[in-house]
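Sample pair:
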Amino acid sequence: MLNTPAAEAYSCPLLIRHLLANVAGQSSAEIVSGDLRLTYPVFTQRVARLASLLAGKGVRPGDTVAVMDWDSHRYLECYFAIPMMGAVLQTVNVRLSPAQIAFTLEQSGASLLLYNADFAPICAELLRGQPAIREAIVMAGTTCDDYEVLLADSSPDFVFADFDENAVATTFHTTGTTGDPKQVFFTHRQLVLHTLALSAALANQPDGQGMRRSDVYMPMTPMFHVHAWGMPYVATMLGSKQVYPGRYDPARLLALKRREGVTLSHCVPTILRMLLDANGAESSSLAPWTVVIGGAALPEALAREARRAGITTVVGYGMSETGPVISLARGEDGEDTGALSRAGFPIPFVQARIEDGNGGELVLRAPWLTQGHATQAASDALWAGGWLHTGDVAARDPDGALRIVDRLKDVIKSGGEWVSTVELENLLEAEGSIAEAAVIGVPDAKWGERPVAFVVAAGGFDPGAVCDVLQGHVASGRLSRYAVPEKVIEVDSLPRTSVGKIDKKALRALLDERAR
């Protein structure tokens, strides 16, 4: 027979505030942002001051507070203070158009806006059209601005109460190449479980491929984008040293890496490319530096180049709707960039299934997946059959690791054969004369579809020679003969979305324009 619980036993809800438990008393590390260096006791005090400030401005549980800032200590304070007081943090994608930003603010019902002074012109216009936003606070720098002055005048004794762990903690909008941005939302319970699962997964990676408390963490993925992949919550819970770089500049990122001893970061392949180019003049080793790569496929050629520069790249897979991390690559042989360039192994609590066997859509279950979009139709489509549909075509390697073959909307069927744009892009970027590549499918009366490649040249580029190399892969059996592109088009740069993904809709429009 089970014992009867005590009448006054504490049933602890999973709330973001519990990620801060004990950290102020156990960590001697710093949070570095601009010229400011905060200890964890000071940081936790500032979180309480921010909650007091917002409460004094009329923010109540359930209200939405929008934030527009570069990566900073202020943003990290918002990550905690806003949801901890029961309000909802909206991380605004500052790379969207003004009209799209206005749409996201209106859809989220934001009642207060915190914004960096860099965005003052756009915010002045936005606020005229957003009557629901009662007040705005400017965050210009580390001292002598409204945010800091108001924070200093606010009480450090805010009492954070318990509430339902299923209360919404954060919201933001996903971006694509068509239609309005889609709103997603996450609860306290979801974010706490994601933090714990990601921490466990990173701690159990092979040496140099994960995270330890002693690591020095610097994000290189914007904090408005899927909670900076959840890593600020992990680093803060562990009490690790953190470095917030502000607006991204490759030279500044490299300087901070060297000055502060950064050992762990995350970014999209585009940022990695920029870092390697910026470091090229010095050609000095950046070791030790583990960089988790996501947002787009990591070409093995880029992973090898990063390895030569002293960077260990580890691919992580996820999407906005998954909060985001679902899987991490790992390789027992740290030199195996191929193993580390896969989507990898599902982290704890994740169920991953491939519909219709290898080469079908990847569908997921995990305790932190968003429960829906802003509309019922979009939510129902996302969760059809009780599994979250990723829109990614996946396969499992013999060791159980996931490998993303393509996006459902990008995969090409030519001559009755499926052509993976991801594999073709990888093979193109492995050629020394190509820096970047993107492949799209175009309608063809005879074959159904044919691939067309857009490439950014790295020097000595010859379309004919590239096609000859691909024909060699056909002869070896690695490629179908239908996968050799109909055209290889050289461009100065590849168009990208606001979060750094290649915009294939824009490439199709470019191709249509050239055909006129």
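The radius of gyration is 24 Å.
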